[in-house]
């Protein structure tokens, strides 16, 4: 796959914001009243100003919010065009596990190195959206030790960096009307930590495909492929199509609910779709990703992340 030196458009949303210590993943559906759609138009057009208002209290905490719009909501906004790959999340029914599709018109990915700034931004956001949306999912994530998930392994090792970030995440000349935008897929996974911790470290490492202590990559045990292999998509020359993951652990020791919130940004939606098909259906077919034996997907939704000029145009009904 040819790599190009692409600069980030100045009005792209902050998809490439630094990995933060805290995040809120907020998914909502827009109510059917025409007034609800008008409210949403105004709020999403002003998100950048809201982030500045809240984030000014501590600029070093890097508050940001990325908003994604689902396929059905995009149609309701009455836009003249449509991003080439924007479509609803399609459920995947494997032999042993299923990736469900769940509702979602808007995704708000709120990030900061301070939990209170995430809280304040979300509070003001929902105040502004009052009466216009219904919350269908809210997850509060946190960075765990040295960027590990609750299974104990480093997460996000394969993320792009430098100029590769824009190449991997931002739409380019292939869809010029939506250049600077991105696709994002989210899933909430719940972990059975008792079952996972009953495995030996060597068994866990074979599932993930990396050593637990130092993150060194391990060879697969054929024909079963490890998670790191199934979640990697390459072209005919073996060059990887990168995506940007900003996954975060979440959970409550009191409730016993623990998990990982998967969020992947990509210039090419089909790359994430193929990754999930390989995980749930198996490659070769029938040999699913064994991480799914202890990690259950309970949500699944796809969104388009417009550049700022398209968000601002929503307010005008353009």
What is the count of structural domains? 1
Largest sheet: 6 strands, antiparallel
Number of strands: 12
Average pLDDT across residues? 94
Q: Helix tally? A: 10
What is the molecular shape? globular
Helical coverage, percent range: 25-40%
* Protein structure class: alpha+beta
Can you describe what's shown?
Helix 1 packs antiparallel against helix 10 and helix 2 packs antiparallel against helix 4. Mean pLDDT is 94; it is low at 1-5. The two termini are 36 Å apart. This protein has one domain (22-315). Strand 9 and strand 10 (257-266) form a beta hairpin. The longest helix is centred in the middle third of the chain and has 14 residues, at 115-128. The chain has helices at residues 34-45, 47-55, 71-76, 115-128, 164-169, 193-197, 201-208, 227-230, 269-281, 308-315; strands spanning 22-30, 64-69, 92-93, 98-99, 106-112, 133-142, 182-191, 244-245, 248-252, 257-266, 295-297, 301-305. The strands form three sheets. Strands 7, 8, 9, 10, 11 and 12 form a six-stranded antiparallel beta sheet that branches. With 318 residues, the chain is α+β, with helices and mostly antiparallel strands. It contains ten helices and twelve strands.
Compact overview of the structure:
The protein has ten helices and twelve strands. The relative contact order is 0.23.
